């Protein structure tokens, strides 16, 4: 019985160790990563759309020698707006990005976009690419927030006058 338990334990640990042994595996297992956005419905305040995106990487997910680029993008009628990517690295990467340890981690990043007319019906998504040596793999695009509440925006006097004459 003890021998069976030791074998089973070793097998489980072995599977966990190779679960994300390559960038492709990280991309395939992206659904195991938890993503939240605060606020869930974006808001326009003073011409800006600001939010905080929190990502939780589970244990044994992040490859120790991988670099992950995550680009926040607002998609709206008439276009899209991209931020500079957030870059994360595994524990064994010798660089100066945020380290995500192999035992899992939660990271929060602030996103900010200038409001453009048409963004009322937008959504925020994350586009990610993992790199390891000379390989790279794209993650499935992850939608994290819907719409932009514009009730805080001032209504222009010209806009009000146009409605009075009709």
UniProtKB/TrEMBL annotation:
<protein>
    <recommendedName>
        <fullName>Lipoprotein</fullName>
    </recommendedName>
</protein>
<feature type="signal peptide">
    <location>
        <begin position="1"/>
        <end position="27"/>
    </location>
</feature>
<keyword id="KW-0732">Signal</keyword>
């Amino acid at each position: 019985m003890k021998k069976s338990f030791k074998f089973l334990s070793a097998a489980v640990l072995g599977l966990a160790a190779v679960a994300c042994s390559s960038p492709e595996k990280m991309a395939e297992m992206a659904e195991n990563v938890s993503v939240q956005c605060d606020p869930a419905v974006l808001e326009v305040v003073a011409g800006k759309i600001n939010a905080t995106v929190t990502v939780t990487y589970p244990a044994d997910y992040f490859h120790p020698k991988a670099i992950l680029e995550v680009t926040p993008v607002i998609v709206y009628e008439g276009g899209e707006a991209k931020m500079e990517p957030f870059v994360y690295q595994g524990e064994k990467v010798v660089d100066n990005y945020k380290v995500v340890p192999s035992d899992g981690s939660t990271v929060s990043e602030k996103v900010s976009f200038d409001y453009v007319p048409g963004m009322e019906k937008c959504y925020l998504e994350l586009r990610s690419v993992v790199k390891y040596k000379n390989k790279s793999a794209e993650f499935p695009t992850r939608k994290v927030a819907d719409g932009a509440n514009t009730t805080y925006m001032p209504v222009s006097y010209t806009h009000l006058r146009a409605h009075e004459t009709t």
